[in-house]
Amino acid sequence: xxxxxxxxxxxxxxxxxxxxxxxxxxxxxxxxxxxxxxxxxxxxxxxxxxxxxxxxxxxxxxxxxxxxxxxxxxxxxxxxxxxxxxxxxxxxxxxxxxxxxxxxxxxxxxxxxxxxxxxxxxxxxxxxxxxxxxxxxxxxxxxxxxxxxxxxxxxxxxxxxxxxxxxxxxxxxxxxxxxxxxxxxxxxxxxxxxxxxxxxxxxxxxxxxxxxxxxxxxxxxxxxxxxx
Amino acid sequence: xxxxxxxxxxxxxxxxxxxxxxxxxxxxxxxxxxxxxxxxxxxxxxxxxxxxxxxxxxxxxxxxxxxxxxxxxxxxxxxxxxxxxxxxxxxxxxxxxxxxxxxxxxxxxxxxxxxxxxxxxxxxxxxxxxxxxxxxxxxxxxxxxxxxxxxxxxxxxxxxxxxxxxxxxxxxxxxxxxxxxxxxxxxxxxxxxxxxxxxxxxxxxxxxxxxxxxxxxxxxxxxxxxxx
Lengths: 228, 228
Ligand SMILES: Nc1ncnc2c1ncn2[C@@H]1O[C@H](COP(=O)(O)OP(=O)(O)OP(=O)(O)O)[C@@H](O)[C@H]1O
Ligand SMILES: Nc1ncnc2c1ncn2[C@@H]1O[C@H](COP(=O)(O)OP(=O)(O)OP(=O)(O)O)[C@@H](O)[C@H]1O
Ligand SMILES: [Mg+2]
Ligand SMILES: [Mg+2]
Known about the structure:
The structure is a homodimer. Helix content of chain A is 35%, strand content 29%. The longest helix of chain A is centred in the C-terminal third of the chain and has 18 residues, at 174-191. By secondary structure, chain A is α/β, with parallel strands linked by helices.
Protein backbone atom coordinates (compact mmCIF):
# COMPACT_ATOMS: atom_id res chain seq x y z
CA UNK A 1 0.00 0.00 0.00
CA UNK A 2 2.76 2.45 1.02
CA UNK A 3 6.26 2.10 -0.47
CA UNK A 4 9.09 4.52 0.35
CA UNK A 5 12.49 4.12 -1.33
CA UNK A 6 15.56 6.25 -0.69
CA UNK A 7 13.48 9.03 0.87
CA UNK A 8 15.45 12.06 2.03
CA UNK A 9 14.21 15.38 3.39
CA UNK A 10 16.49 18.36 3.86
CA UNK A 11 15.58 21.74 5.27
CA UNK A 12 17.59 24.81 4.41
CA UNK A 13 17.93 27.54 7.04
CA UNK A 14 20.09 30.32 5.67
CA UNK A 15 23.52 28.73 5.18
CA UNK A 16 22.73 25.66 7.25
CA UNK A 17 21.17 22.43 5.97
CA UNK A 18 19.24 20.13 8.31
CA UNK A 19 19.15 16.50 7.11
CA UNK A 20 15.86 15.52 8.73
CA UNK A 21 15.55 12.20 6.83
CA UNK A 22 18.38 10.25 5.18
CA UNK A 23 17.69 7.43 2.75
CA UNK A 24 14.56 5.90 4.29
CA UNK A 25 13.13 2.65 2.89
CA UNK A 26 9.75 1.58 4.25
CA UNK A 27 7.01 -0.83 3.22
CA UNK A 28 3.51 -0.72 4.73
CA UNK A 29 1.04 -3.43 3.69
CA UNK A 30 -2.73 -3.10 3.97
CA UNK A 31 -3.84 -4.05 7.46
CA UNK A 32 -0.43 -3.33 9.05
CA UNK A 33 -0.26 -1.62 12.43
CA UNK A 34 3.16 0.00 12.69
CA UNK A 35 4.71 2.15 15.43
CA UNK A 36 7.56 4.60 14.78
CA UNK A 37 9.79 5.47 17.74
CA UNK A 38 12.90 7.56 18.18
CA UNK A 39 14.40 10.51 20.08
CA UNK A 40 13.05 14.04 19.87
CA UNK A 41 14.15 15.54 16.55
CA UNK A 42 14.96 12.21 14.89
CA UNK A 43 12.57 12.80 11.96
CA UNK A 44 9.38 10.96 12.98
CA UNK A 45 6.92 13.78 12.20
CA UNK A 46 8.79 14.59 8.99
CA UNK A 47 8.42 10.96 7.90
CA UNK A 48 4.72 10.82 8.82
CA UNK A 49 4.01 14.08 6.96
CA UNK A 50 5.60 12.64 3.81
CA UNK A 51 3.59 9.41 4.13
CA UNK A 52 0.45 11.54 4.59
CA UNK A 53 1.23 13.60 1.47
CA UNK A 54 1.47 16.79 3.54
CA UNK A 55 5.09 17.27 2.54
CA UNK A 56 7.21 16.19 -0.42
CA UNK A 57 10.61 14.51 0.00
CA UNK A 58 13.78 16.20 -1.27
CA UNK A 59 14.59 12.99 -3.13
CA UNK A 60 13.46 9.38 -3.30
CA UNK A 61 10.39 7.49 -4.46
CA UNK A 62 6.97 7.27 -2.81
CA UNK A 63 4.35 4.90 -4.20
CA UNK A 64 0.87 4.98 -2.70
CA UNK A 65 -1.40 2.14 -3.83
CA UNK A 66 0.94 1.62 -6.78
CA UNK A 67 0.91 5.27 -7.96
CA UNK A 68 3.98 7.52 -7.92
CA UNK A 69 2.92 10.30 -5.55
CA UNK A 70 5.26 12.97 -7.01
CA UNK A 71 3.38 12.65 -10.32
CA UNK A 72 0.10 13.65 -8.68
CA UNK A 73 -1.19 17.22 -8.64
CA UNK A 74 -1.78 19.09 -5.39
CA UNK A 75 -5.54 18.86 -5.79
CA UNK A 76 -5.36 15.12 -6.48
CA UNK A 77 -3.22 14.69 -3.35
CA UNK A 78 -5.71 16.69 -1.31
CA UNK A 79 -8.50 14.45 -2.56
CA UNK A 80 -6.57 11.27 -1.63
CA UNK A 81 -5.86 12.68 1.83
CA UNK A 82 -9.48 13.60 2.36
CA UNK A 83 -10.94 10.26 1.31
CA UNK A 84 -8.40 7.67 2.42
CA UNK A 85 -6.18 9.12 5.13
CA UNK A 86 -7.10 10.16 8.65
CA UNK A 87 -4.29 12.27 10.13
CA UNK A 88 -3.83 13.00 13.84
CA UNK A 89 -1.37 15.89 14.15
CA UNK A 90 1.18 16.20 16.95
CA UNK A 91 -0.22 19.67 17.70
CA UNK A 92 -3.83 18.73 16.88
CA UNK A 93 -4.53 21.65 14.48
CA UNK A 94 -8.16 22.10 15.52
CA UNK A 95 -9.92 25.22 14.18
CA UNK A 96 -10.26 27.60 17.13
CA UNK A 97 -13.62 29.09 16.13
CA UNK A 98 -15.42 25.78 15.63
CA UNK A 99 -16.69 23.62 18.46
CA UNK A 100 -15.58 20.00 18.86
CA UNK A 101 -18.38 18.52 16.77
CA UNK A 102 -17.91 21.04 13.92
CA UNK A 103 -14.18 20.28 13.94
CA UNK A 104 -14.89 16.56 13.63
CA UNK A 105 -17.34 17.16 10.77
CA UNK A 106 -15.02 19.37 8.72
CA UNK A 107 -13.39 16.59 6.60
CA UNK A 108 -16.85 15.12 5.99
CA UNK A 109 -18.10 18.50 4.71
CA UNK A 110 -15.19 18.60 2.25
CA UNK A 111 -16.20 15.16 1.07
CA UNK A 112 -19.72 16.40 0.31
CA UNK A 113 -21.44 14.27 2.95
CA UNK A 114 -25.02 15.28 3.83
CA UNK A 115 -25.82 16.93 7.17
CA UNK A 116 -27.70 14.07 8.81
CA UNK A 117 -25.02 11.47 8.06
CA UNK A 118 -22.30 13.93 9.20
CA UNK A 119 -24.01 14.53 12.56
CA UNK A 120 -24.41 10.79 13.05
CA UNK A 121 -20.78 9.98 12.26
CA UNK A 122 -19.31 12.91 14.23
CA UNK A 123 -21.37 12.06 17.31
CA UNK A 124 -20.38 8.39 17.08
CA UNK A 125 -16.69 9.36 16.80
CA UNK A 126 -16.92 11.72 19.79
CA UNK A 127 -18.71 9.07 21.83
CA UNK A 128 -15.99 6.54 21.01
CA UNK A 129 -13.36 8.83 22.55
CA UNK A 130 -15.58 9.71 25.54
CA UNK A 131 -16.30 13.32 24.54
CA UNK A 132 -19.95 13.48 23.50
CA UNK A 133 -20.58 15.74 26.50
CA UNK A 134 -17.94 18.20 25.27
CA UNK A 135 -19.17 18.44 21.66
CA UNK A 136 -20.18 22.10 22.01
CA UNK A 137 -16.89 23.23 23.54
CA UNK A 138 -14.42 25.10 21.38
CA UNK A 139 -10.75 24.05 21.60
CA UNK A 140 -9.92 26.82 24.10
CA UNK A 141 -12.66 25.39 26.34
CA UNK A 142 -11.17 21.91 26.30
CA UNK A 143 -8.30 20.36 28.24
CA UNK A 144 -5.14 19.30 26.38
CA UNK A 145 -6.14 15.65 26.38
CA UNK A 146 -9.67 16.52 25.27
CA UNK A 147 -8.29 18.47 22.29
CA UNK A 148 -6.16 15.46 21.39
CA UNK A 149 -9.16 13.16 21.55
CA UNK A 150 -11.18 15.52 19.31
CA UNK A 151 -8.30 15.36 16.80
CA UNK A 152 -8.48 11.55 16.96
CA UNK A 153 -12.27 11.58 16.52
CA UNK A 154 -11.87 13.85 13.48
CA UNK A 155 -9.42 11.38 11.90
CA UNK A 156 -11.70 8.39 12.57
CA UNK A 157 -15.10 9.88 11.71
CA UNK A 158 -14.74 9.51 7.94
CA UNK A 159 -13.76 5.82 8.24
CA UNK A 160 -10.51 6.21 6.28
CA UNK A 161 -8.42 3.35 4.90
CA UNK A 162 -5.27 4.57 6.68
CA UNK A 163 -4.74 6.30 10.01
CA UNK A 164 -1.51 8.29 10.45
CA UNK A 165 -1.22 9.36 14.08
CA UNK A 166 1.57 11.56 15.44
CA UNK A 167 1.84 10.91 19.21
CA UNK A 168 -1.92 10.14 19.54
CA UNK A 169 -1.70 9.57 23.30
CA UNK A 170 0.94 12.21 24.13
CA UNK A 171 -1.48 14.36 26.14
CA UNK A 172 -3.46 11.51 27.70
CA UNK A 173 -3.34 9.76 31.08
CA UNK A 174 -2.63 6.03 30.86
CA UNK A 175 -6.27 4.93 31.00
CA UNK A 176 -7.37 7.31 28.22
CA UNK A 177 -4.32 6.20 26.22
CA UNK A 178 -5.31 2.55 26.60
CA UNK A 179 -8.85 3.36 25.47
CA UNK A 180 -7.50 4.91 22.27
CA UNK A 181 -5.22 1.91 21.63
CA UNK A 182 -8.20 -0.42 22.15
CA UNK A 183 -10.10 1.52 19.45
CA UNK A 184 -7.10 1.37 17.08
CA UNK A 185 -6.61 -2.36 17.65
CA UNK A 186 -10.29 -3.14 17.15
CA UNK A 187 -10.50 -1.17 13.89
CA UNK A 188 -7.26 -2.78 12.69
CA UNK A 189 -8.39 -6.35 13.47
CA UNK A 190 -12.09 -6.06 12.53
CA UNK A 191 -11.95 -3.65 9.60
CA UNK A 192 -8.39 -4.02 8.36
CA UNK A 193 -7.64 -0.35 9.06
CA UNK A 194 -3.96 0.34 8.27
CA UNK A 195 -2.30 2.29 11.08
CA UNK A 196 1.06 4.06 11.25
CA UNK A 197 1.58 5.81 14.58
CA UNK A 198 4.47 7.81 15.98
CA UNK A 199 4.88 7.37 19.71
CA UNK A 200 7.62 7.77 22.27
CA UNK A 201 5.88 5.40 24.75
CA UNK A 202 6.89 1.75 24.58
CA UNK A 203 3.65 0.32 25.94
CA UNK A 204 1.72 2.28 23.31
CA UNK A 205 4.10 1.15 20.55
CA UNK A 206 3.60 -2.50 21.52
CA UNK A 207 -0.07 -2.45 20.43
CA UNK A 208 1.12 -2.68 16.81
CA UNK A 209 2.66 -5.50 14.75
CA UNK A 210 6.11 -3.96 14.46
CA UNK A 211 8.19 -1.04 15.72
CA UNK A 212 10.44 1.06 13.49
CA UNK A 213 13.24 2.91 15.28
CA UNK A 214 14.51 6.22 13.85
CA UNK A 215 17.78 7.85 14.92
CA UNK A 216 19.10 11.09 13.40
CA UNK A 217 16.90 10.78 10.34
CA UNK A 218 17.88 7.18 9.60
CA UNK A 219 16.11 3.86 10.02
CA UNK A 220 18.06 2.31 12.84
CA UNK A 221 16.18 -0.98 13.13
CA UNK A 222 12.85 -2.75 12.61
CA UNK A 223 11.46 -4.87 15.41
CA UNK A 224 8.68 -7.42 14.89
CA UNK A 225 6.31 -7.82 17.85
CA UNK A 226 4.77 -11.15 18.85
CA UNK A 227 1.10 -11.07 19.60
CA UNK A 228 -1.15 -13.76 21.02
CA UNK B 1 4.85 29.67 50.04
CA UNK B 2 1.63 28.65 48.23
CA UNK B 3 -1.59 28.15 50.19
CA UNK B 4 -4.90 27.24 48.51
CA UNK B 5 -8.06 26.90 50.60
CA UNK B 6 -11.50 25.91 49.34
CA UNK B 7 -10.55 26.75 45.74
CA UNK B 8 -13.31 26.21 43.18
CA UNK B 9 -13.38 27.05 39.49
CA UNK B 10 -16.53 26.90 37.44
CA UNK B 11 -16.90 27.59 33.74
CA UNK B 12 -20.22 28.64 32.28
CA UNK B 13 -21.07 27.52 28.76
CA UNK B 14 -24.53 28.81 27.85
CA UNK B 15 -26.86 27.02 30.25
CA UNK B 16 -24.30 24.46 31.33
CA UNK B 17 -21.85 24.82 34.20
CA UNK B 18 -18.59 22.87 34.27
CA UNK B 19 -17.19 22.36 37.78
CA UNK B 20 -13.53 22.14 36.84
CA UNK B 21 -12.26 22.40 40.46
CA UNK B 22 -14.23 21.66 43.62
CA UNK B 23 -13.01 22.71 47.03
CA UNK B 24 -9.25 22.25 46.61
CA UNK B 25 -6.92 22.66 49.61
CA UNK B 26 -3.20 22.61 48.86
CA UNK B 27 -0.02 23.65 50.67
CA UNK B 28 3.31 24.04 48.88
CA UNK B 29 6.38 24.84 51.01
CA UNK B 30 9.55 26.43 49.64
CA UNK B 31 11.79 23.73 48.19
CA UNK B 32 8.94 21.28 47.60
CA UNK B 33 8.87 19.21 44.40
CA UNK B 34 5.26 18.17 43.83
CA UNK B 35 3.66 16.21 40.99
CA UNK B 36 -0.06 16.47 40.12
CA UNK B 37 -1.61 13.48 38.35
CA UNK B 38 -5.11 12.62 37.21
CA UNK B 39 -7.23 11.67 34.20
CA UNK B 40 -7.69 13.89 31.17
CA UNK B 41 -10.14 16.67 32.08
CA UNK B 42 -9.76 16.25 35.84
CA UNK B 43 -8.70 19.89 36.41
CA UNK B 44 -4.88 19.73 36.50
CA UNK B 45 -4.20 22.60 34.07
CA UNK B 46 -6.97 24.67 35.66
CA UNK B 47 -5.31 24.19 39.08
CA UNK B 48 -1.84 25.03 37.75
CA UNK B 49 -3.12 28.17 36.00
CA UNK B 50 -4.65 29.39 39.28
CA UNK B 51 -1.41 28.69 41.18
CA UNK B 52 0.47 30.57 38.45
CA UNK B 53 -1.89 33.60 38.73
CA UNK B 54 -2.98 33.14 35.10
CA UNK B 55 -6.56 32.53 36.17
CA UNK B 56 -8.65 33.51 39.20
CA UNK B 57 -10.73 30.98 41.15
CA UNK B 58 -14.53 31.27 41.29
CA UNK B 59 -14.24 31.09 45.08
CA UNK B 60 -11.73 30.21 47.77
CA UNK B 61 -8.54 31.73 49.14
CA UNK B 62 -5.08 31.83 47.54
CA UNK B 63 -2.12 33.10 49.55
CA UNK B 64 1.22 33.49 47.79
CA UNK B 65 4.16 34.21 50.12
CA UNK B 66 1.62 35.31 52.73
CA UNK B 67 -0.24 37.79 50.49
CA UNK B 68 -3.87 37.32 49.44
CA UNK B 69 -3.61 37.06 45.65
CA UNK B 70 -7.17 38.28 44.91
CA UNK B 71 -6.25 41.61 46.53
CA UNK B 72 -3.45 42.18 44.00
CA UNK B 73 -3.91 44.21 40.83
CA UNK B 74 -3.42 42.63 37.39
CA UNK B 75 -0.16 44.53 36.86
CA UNK B 76 1.15 43.44 40.27
CA UNK B 77 0.27 39.84 39.43
CA UNK B 78 2.04 40.14 36.06
CA UNK B 79 5.12 41.45 37.84
CA UNK B 80 5.10 38.54 40.36
CA UNK B 81 4.71 36.05 37.50
CA UNK B 82 7.56 37.61 35.57
CA UNK B 83 10.03 37.70 38.46
CA UNK B 84 9.26 34.64 40.54
CA UNK B 85 7.39 32.10 38.45
CA UNK B 86 8.60 30.14 35.43
CA UNK B 87 5.61 28.58 33.63
CA UNK B 88 5.81 25.73 31.13
CA UNK B 89 2.48 25.59 29.25
CA UNK B 90 0.86 22.36 28.10
CA UNK B 91 0.71 23.83 24.58
CA UNK B 92 4.05 25.69 24.87
CA UNK B 93 2.77 29.13 23.71
CA UNK B 94 5.94 30.08 21.87
CA UNK B 95 5.75 33.22 19.72
CA UNK B 96 5.72 32.01 16.09
CA UNK B 97 7.71 34.91 14.62
CA UNK B 98 10.59 34.72 17.09
CA UNK B 99 13.35 32.13 16.92
CA UNK B 100 14.09 29.83 19.87
CA UNK B 101 16.64 32.13 21.48
CA UNK B 102 14.42 35.21 21.19
CA UNK B 103 11.53 33.25 22.71
CA UNK B 104 13.72 32.25 25.66
CA UNK B 105 14.86 35.88 26.14
CA UNK B 106 11.38 37.39 26.10
CA UNK B 107 10.65 37.20 29.88
CA UNK B 108 14.15 38.61 30.53
CA UNK B 109 13.42 41.58 28.24
CA UNK B 110 10.26 42.29 30.24
CA UNK B 111 12.35 42.25 33.39
CA UNK B 112 14.62 44.91 31.95
CA UNK B 113 17.71 42.70 31.76
CA UNK B 114 20.58 44.00 29.59
CA UNK B 115 21.37 42.39 26.23
CA UNK B 116 24.67 40.75 27.11
CA UNK B 117 23.31 39.06 30.26
CA UNK B 118 20.16 37.98 28.35
CA UNK B 119 22.21 36.29 25.61
CA UNK B 120 24.34 34.54 28.20
CA UNK B 121 21.37 33.23 30.19
CA UNK B 122 19.30 32.23 27.14
CA UNK B 123 22.21 30.34 25.59
CA UNK B 124 22.91 28.55 28.89
CA UNK B 125 19.24 27.55 29.18
CA UNK B 126 19.14 26.26 25.60
CA UNK B 127 22.37 24.33 26.14
CA UNK B 128 20.94 22.73 29.28
CA UNK B 129 18.04 21.28 27.25
CA UNK B 130 20.31 20.27 24.36
CA UNK B 131 19.08 22.87 21.86
CA UNK B 132 21.90 25.38 21.40
CA UNK B 133 22.19 24.20 17.78
CA UNK B 134 18.51 25.04 17.15
CA UNK B 135 18.58 28.55 18.66
CA UNK B 136 17.90 30.23 15.29
CA UNK B 137 14.94 28.03 14.37
CA UNK B 138 11.44 29.45 14.70
CA UNK B 139 8.81 27.19 16.31
CA UNK B 140 7.50 25.99 12.94
CA UNK B 141 11.04 24.84 12.16
CA UNK B 142 11.29 22.76 15.32
CA UNK B 143 10.00 19.30 16.20
CA UNK B 144 7.28 18.95 18.86
CA UNK B 145 9.75 17.89 21.50
CA UNK B 146 12.13 20.69 20.56
CA UNK B 147 9.34 23.25 20.99
CA UNK B 148 8.60 21.78 24.40
CA UNK B 149 12.26 22.03 25.40
CA UNK B 150 12.39 25.67 24.27
CA UNK B 151 9.35 26.33 26.49
CA UNK B 152 11.24 24.70 29.39
CA UNK B 153 14.38 26.75 28.67
CA UNK B 154 12.27 29.92 28.63
CA UNK B 155 10.86 29.06 32.08
CA UNK B 156 14.32 28.31 33.53
CA UNK B 157 16.39 31.11 31.97
CA UNK B 158 15.32 33.80 34.45
CA UNK B 159 16.15 31.61 37.46
CA UNK B 160 12.69 31.88 39.02
CA UNK B 161 11.82 30.86 42.59
CA UNK B 162 9.01 28.57 41.43
CA UNK B 163 8.62 26.39 38.33
CA UNK B 164 5.06 25.45 37.31
CA UNK B 165 5.25 22.88 34.54
CA UNK B 166 2.20 21.48 32.71
CA UNK B 167 3.20 18.09 31.23
CA UNK B 168 6.85 19.18 30.71
CA UNK B 169 7.85 15.84 29.15
CA UNK B 170 4.63 15.11 27.24
CA UNK B 171 6.25 15.48 23.82
CA UNK B 172 9.61 13.93 24.74
CA UNK B 173 11.12 10.48 24.28
CA UNK B 174 12.09 8.78 27.56
CA UNK B 175 15.76 9.83 27.46
CA UNK B 176 14.96 13.51 26.83
CA UNK B 177 12.31 13.29 29.57
CA UNK B 178 14.88 11.90 32.02
CA UNK B 179 17.29 14.71 31.10
CA UNK B 180 14.66 17.30 31.98
CA UNK B 181 13.86 15.57 35.28
CA UNK B 182 17.59 15.50 36.11
CA UNK B 183 17.69 19.28 35.59
CA UNK B 184 14.58 19.78 37.76
CA UNK B 185 15.97 17.57 40.54
CA UNK B 186 19.36 19.27 40.51
CA UNK B 187 17.85 22.77 40.69
CA UNK B 188 15.48 21.62 43.44
CA UNK B 189 18.22 20.04 45.58
CA UNK B 190 21.05 22.52 44.93
CA UNK B 191 19.12 25.81 44.68
CA UNK B 192 15.92 25.05 46.54
CA UNK B 193 13.83 25.69 43.42
CA UNK B 194 10.16 24.97 44.24
CA UNK B 195 8.55 22.81 41.53
CA UNK B 196 4.91 21.93 40.87
CA UNK B 197 4.52 19.78 37.77
CA UNK B 198 1.49 18.21 36.12
CA UNK B 199 2.25 14.89 34.52
CA UNK B 200 0.37 11.80 33.47
CA UNK B 201 3.52 9.63 33.54
CA UNK B 202 4.23 7.79 36.82
CA UNK B 203 8.00 7.56 36.39
CA UNK B 204 8.14 11.31 35.79
CA UNK B 205 5.90 11.99 38.82
CA UNK B 206 8.19 9.92 41.05
CA UNK B 207 11.05 12.42 40.70
CA UNK B 208 9.23 14.69 43.18
CA UNK B 209 8.64 14.48 46.94
CA UNK B 210 4.91 13.83 46.73
CA UNK B 211 2.14 13.11 44.24
CA UNK B 212 -1.29 14.76 44.36
CA UNK B 213 -4.06 12.87 42.60
CA UNK B 214 -6.99 14.79 41.07
CA UNK B 215 -10.25 13.18 40.01
CA UNK B 216 -13.20 15.15 38.59
CA UNK B 217 -11.93 18.43 39.98
CA UNK B 218 -11.36 17.08 43.49
CA UNK B 219 -8.27 16.18 45.47
CA UNK B 220 -8.56 12.42 45.64
CA UNK B 221 -5.41 11.66 47.63
CA UNK B 222 -1.88 12.82 48.47
CA UNK B 223 0.96 10.33 48.27
CA UNK B 224 4.36 10.92 49.90
CA UNK B 225 7.30 9.43 47.99
CA UNK B 226 10.35 7.94 49.70
CA UNK B 227 13.68 9.02 48.33
CA UNK B 228 17.17 7.76 49.13
N1 LIG C 1 -12.88 27.71 29.08
C1 LIG C 1 -13.54 26.58 29.43
N2 LIG C 1 -14.90 26.54 29.34
C2 LIG C 1 -15.58 25.41 29.68
N3 LIG C 1 -15.01 24.30 30.14
C3 LIG C 1 -13.65 24.27 30.23
C4 LIG C 1 -12.85 25.40 29.89
N4 LIG C 1 -11.54 25.08 30.07
C5 LIG C 1 -11.54 23.81 30.53
N5 LIG C 1 -12.79 23.32 30.62
C6 LIG C 1 -13.19 22.00 31.10
O1 LIG C 1 -12.70 21.86 32.44
C7 LIG C 1 -12.22 20.53 32.65
C8 LIG C 1 -10.82 20.58 33.25
O2 LIG C 1 -9.91 21.09 32.31
P1 LIG C 1 -8.33 21.02 32.53
O3 LIG C 1 -7.70 21.66 31.35
O4 LIG C 1 -7.97 21.59 33.86
O5 LIG C 1 -8.07 19.44 32.57
P2 LIG C 1 -6.69 18.63 32.69
O6 LIG C 1 -6.74 17.82 33.92
O7 LIG C 1 -5.53 19.56 32.52
O8 LIG C 1 -6.78 17.64 31.46
P3 LIG C 1 -5.63 17.09 30.45
O9 LIG C 1 -4.90 16.02 31.19
O10 LIG C 1 -6.47 16.54 29.32
O11 LIG C 1 -4.77 18.23 30.03
C9 LIG C 1 -12.26 19.82 31.30
O12 LIG C 1 -13.27 18.83 31.32
C10 LIG C 1 -12.57 20.90 30.28
O13 LIG C 1 -13.49 20.47 29.28
N1 LIG D 1 10.88 23.70 8.72
C1 LIG D 1 12.04 23.25 9.27
N2 LIG D 1 13.20 23.90 9.02
C2 LIG D 1 14.36 23.47 9.56
N3 LIG D 1 14.49 22.40 10.35
C3 LIG D 1 13.36 21.71 10.64
C4 LIG D 1 12.08 22.10 10.13
N4 LIG D 1 11.15 21.24 10.61
C5 LIG D 1 11.81 20.35 11.38
N5 LIG D 1 13.14 20.63 11.40
C6 LIG D 1 14.19 19.87 12.08
O1 LIG D 1 14.15 18.54 11.58
C7 LIG D 1 14.38 17.61 12.64
C8 LIG D 1 13.31 16.52 12.62
O2 LIG D 1 12.06 17.09 12.95
P1 LIG D 1 10.79 16.17 13.29
O3 LIG D 1 9.67 17.10 13.61
O4 LIG D 1 10.56 15.19 12.19
O5 LIG D 1 11.28 15.38 14.59
P2 LIG D 1 10.47 14.34 15.52
O6 LIG D 1 11.19 13.05 15.47
O7 LIG D 1 9.02 14.35 15.16
O8 LIG D 1 10.67 14.96 16.95
P3 LIG D 1 9.68 15.03 18.24
O9 LIG D 1 9.71 13.67 18.86
O10 LIG D 1 10.34 16.06 19.08
O11 LIG D 1 8.33 15.44 17.76
C9 LIG D 1 14.38 18.41 13.95
O12 LIG D 1 15.69 18.42 14.47
C10 LIG D 1 13.93 19.79 13.57
O13 LIG D 1 14.66 20.82 14.23
MG1 LIG E 1 7.31 15.01 16.12
MG1 LIG F 1 -4.11 19.81 31.05
